[in-house]
Design a protein that fits this description.
five-stranded mixed sheet, globular, Chitinase A, domain 3, 1 helix, mainly beta, about 70 residues
């Protein structure tokens, strides 16, 4: 089975054409400036259980919808 994104995963994603390195963490460890996002955030929760190559649309708290492609999972 391919790797799935879980809490603690370090991932590389393309968000609306921009490549970002993110880490899925618990709420107490969030640091957006360092790419550490909560598993409860719109992007974090949408990514949980996903695999490399998946493309999804995520609705942000602002109502904006962004395209997200999973490039790498570590």
């Amino acid at each position: 089975m391919d790797k799935e994104i879980t809490i603690g995963s370090k991932i590389k994603v393309e968000l609306n054409g921009n490549v970002k390195n993110l880490e899925i963490v618990g709420s107490a460890d969030v640091d957006a400036n360092c790419g550490r996002i909560s598993y409860l955030s719109p992007i974090g929760s949408a990514l949980l259980g996903r695999q490399i190559g998946e493309i999804l649309k995520v609705k942000l708290a602002t109502g904006k919808i962004i395209k997200c492609k999973i490039i790498e999972i570590n």
